[in-house]
Specification:
six-stranded mixed sheet; globular
Amino acid sequence: MSTADQVSALPEPVGRLVAAINDADTDAFAACFTDDGYVDDWGRVLTGPQGVRSWAGSDAIGAGAQMTILTADTDGDTVTTRFSWRSRVFNGESTGIFTLSGGKIASFTIPPNH
């Protein structure tokens, strides 16, 4: 499968998250997550709507982030991506691991060995 095919096959919740970041829409970003969803950014875990919004404010939307999915692989409810990130906090490529539940994101993990 080509990279373009992998990205076009991205599960809808992950696509919504990328669009929310790129559109600087914190409400849409938070709505992508389950009520107990979390972001784990290099071991810093922010849980629930307040935690997710906090991360969006400090590391993503509040930092002017733009996210581009480079590759994506879906295995059941787990989506492993490689993405490009540009912001005032970090610029480069990282791995992103999403766990899905009920049409939403239960977790978004950026491991330290990006």
